[in-house]
Amino acid sequence: MKELKGFSKVRLFVAYIMIALCVFLGILGMVFMESPSVAAERKVIVQAMDRDPDILDTIKAAWYSDALIYLHDRLISRDYDFRYRPGLATGWEVSEDGLIWIFHLRKGVTFHDGTPFTAKDVKWTIDTIKDPKTASPSAGDLKSIDEVKIIDDHTVQMVLKYPFPNLLFNLSNTALGIQKAGCYEEYGEYYGIKTVMGTGPFMFKKWVRGDRIVLVKNPDYNWGPEWMSNRGPALFDELVIRTIPEESSRIMELVTGGIHVLRDVPPLQADKLKENPDINIFIDQSTKLGYLAYACDKKPFDDVLVRRAINHAVDRETIVKYIFSGYATPAYGYLPPALKDEYLEESEELGYKYDPARAKALLAEAGFPNGFETTLSAENDSTSKRLAEVLQAQLAEVGIKAKIQLYDSASYVAMLKAGQQDLFVRLYSWPNADILDWFLLSAQFPYPNHSRWCDPKTDELINSAATAPTWEIRAERYKEVQRYLIEQAVWCPIYIPDKMLAVRKEVINFKNHPWMIQYSDGIDIVTK
Amino acid sequence: MLRYFVRRMAFLVLTLLGATIVIFSMLHLAPGDPIDLIVGPNVIPEVRENIRHQYGLDRPLAVQYLSFMKSLLHGDLGNSIIQHKPVSELIVERFFVTLELSLTALVISFLISIPIGIKAALKRNTVTDYALMALSLIGISMPTFWFGLMLLYIVAFKLRLFPVSGYGTWRHLFLPALTIGITDAALLARMVRSSMLEVIRQDYIRTARSKGLPERVVINRHALRNALIPIITLLGLRIGWVVGGSVVVEIVFARPGLGRLMVDSILARDYPVVQGVMVVLTTCIILGNLVADILYAVVDPRIKLK
Fold this sequence. Notes:
The complex is a heterodimer of chains A (528) and B (306). In chain A, 34% of the residues lie in helices and 22% in strands. By secondary structure, chain A is an alpha+beta fold. In chain A, helix 8 (304-313) runs antiparallel to helix 11 (356-365) and helix 15 runs antiparallel to helix 16 (471-488). Chain B has 306 residues and is an all-alpha fold. Chain B folds into two domains: 2-73, no CATH class; 94-299, MetI-like (MetI-like fold, Orthogonal Bundle), CATH 1.10.3720. Chain B has 13 helices and no strands. Chain B has helices at 2-29, 34-39, 45-54, 61-73, 87-122, 127-141, 144-158, 170-200, 203-210, 215-240, 247-252, 258-267, 271-299.
C-alpha cells in the first residue's frame, strides 16, 4: 500500500509536468500564431529557391544567390528589354579602337554603412577579382582588362588588352556587383557570411544557412537606374529568400501563401498553378538551351555525316510536348532567341529537322547501314533522366543503340573531364553569346569543351567575334559562328525551356524582367 | 566499473579510427573534384593548384589522412572547401536543429508505441492485437519520404493546421517530428509487444497476480519495467542515430539540419565537412550505446558492468 501511494505520487508529478508542458506549448503556440499579424505591419515578400548559396560574396561565389542582385549595384544595368543601360555609371565612352573605356560614376551614392561610393571602390572590386590570389571564379570574365585607372573620384578609365565589346555584359553581371574597397580587411573572414556591404536597394540582415536569407530595404536608396519607374527605396520592408530543396514542398508553400514568389516553376505543375485564382504565372523565353552532345574526337562522332544523322533522328516536337508539357520551344541553333542581337534567325531553316529516313541514309553513307552501339550519359535528375530515355528510343529508331548511364553532378563533371563520354545530355543557362567561347574553343579542351571539338576554324570565327570593335559587328560575327556550327552539327540542339515564374496575387505591380526580378522597381505587397 | 569505462573508451577510439579510414578512402576514391565547384573551369591552372595546395589536396592520400587525424586530435575538424567556414562551426549550427527533431521524434515514438505494444500484448491473439499489429506493419512499410509528403499534403496543405516547411518554432517542428516519430513507433510497438509477452509469462508476474495486486500495478510496476530493458538498447542506438533517420525529412520539410549538410557536402565533394560529420556521428552512435549499457545497469540491478 505504501509503495502504491509512492507510485501514484510519481504519476501525479508526471501529470503535473504534462499539464505544465501543454500550457507552455499552448502559450508558445499563441505567441507564434500572433506573429503573422505583427509581421503584417512590416511588409515582407518571400521568395523560394531550391538551394542555398555557399557564400554571399560576388567575388568568391561560384553560384550566385539572388540576394546578391539586390545587395549590390553594378556599373551597368539591364532594362526590361535586356539592353545595357546606366547603373552606377551614368555613362561611358569607348575609344575608336575599342581599347579605352571611360566610365562616369553616379554621385551621391553611399554604401549601406554610409560611406560614399567612389572610383576607388570600382578599382578595388575589379583588381581583387583579377588578382590570382583571390581565386575568383569570375577572373576569366575580366581577362580583357589590362588596367583600371582612377581619373578622379567619379571617373574611371579601363584600358583593355584587345577590343572587347562584351565588357558591357560582364560589367552588368552579378559577379561585378561593386564592393566597398577594402571590405575583406575591414570585415575579416566572415565577409559574405555575417556581413555583406553594397550600395543596392536592399541591405543584409541575416543568413541562416540552409534556411533563409533576410534582406531589409535600404531607406536611403534613390539612385535606381533611369529606366525604373521607382528609382527610390523599395515599397516593401523585407525580402526573404528561403531555401526549400524539395519541389513539392515549394509548390505547397506557394499555394498556402508561405512564399510569394517562385522562380523556375516545374513544367508539370504549370497548368495546375495557372488555374489557381491566387497565383499569376509569367511565362517568357529563357536563355537556356538543352542539347545532346557527343565526343567529336571519337569514332563515329568524328564523322559529320553521323553527327547530322543524330540531328535528324531527334524528334524535338515530341520531346517538348511530352517532357515539358509544351512549356519549351524546339531548338535548332546554338543560341536561344532571347539573345535578340546575336540569335541567328534562320537557325531552324538551316538546322536539321526530324527525318528518320534521312538519318538512316546518312548513317549508311557514313558506313553504318545497321547503325552502331554506344553510351548515352546524363545527370541523375528527373528531367535529364526522362530526356535520356526518350532520346534512347528515338535513336534506336534509326539503328543507334545507346546504353544509358546516370551520374550525380560531381561525378558527371569528373567523367566529362576524363573524356569517357560518347553521347551525353546537357543544359546550359547563360544570357550571352560568349557561352559558345566557353564550350567550343579548343583552349577550353577537355573541359568545359566537353564535346571535345577542337577546330581551328571555330576558334578563328569565335575569336574574331569576341574581339570585334563594336557590339553590332560582334553580333554579326556570332551569327557566322552559329551558321558554321549548324553546318558541322557540333551538337544536337533540342529545346529551349520556358522561363516560368509564379507570383501570388498579393504581390502587386509585378513586372517580369528578362534577367532578374527588380524588387525595388515599384513591386509591393498588400496584406489581408 | 572504471575498468569498464576505460575499455569502452578504447573501443570508441578504435571504432573511430576504423570508421574514419573507411569514410576517408571512400570519399576520395569517388570521382569528382571540389575545386571545380569553387573556382569553375575558367580559372588559370596556377590558381587551381594554389587552392589545391591550400587545402592540402595535392598530397598523397595517406599523408592527407594522417594530417586529418592529427588535427582531429587537437579538436580541429578543418575548414570547409565549399562553404568557406570552419567545419566545427557548420556542424554546431546544424547539430541542434537535428537533435531537436530527433529527440522530439523519440518522445513521440515512445508515447505512441508503449501503450500500443502493451495493449497488443495483453490482448494477444484477439482482433485488437491483429489490428494494432497490422497498423504497425503498415507503419514500417511506409517510406518516410512518402509519409512525410502525405502528412504535409493533408495536415499543412489541405487542412492548413501547420506551416508547410521551414524551421524556428514548435509548429515547424511538429510535422517532421511526427513523421519520424510514427515510423519509428511502428517498429517499436512490435518490440514492446514481444518483450511484454515474454515477461508476462514469467513466474513473478503470476506471483504478483496471485498475491492480489490490481492488474494495473502488475503491468505498470512489474511487467513493463522488465519489458523495457531490451527497448532501452534500441533507445541507445536511436539516440546515436540522430542524423540517418532525418535526412529525408529534413529535405521534405526544408529544415537546415545535419543530415542535409552531410548530403549536400557529399554531392559537392566537400571532404572536410563529410569527414567531420561522420566523426561526430560515429561518436554519437558509440556514446549512445554506452549510455544504453549504463541505463541497463540502472534499470536492472542484476546486470553489472564489468
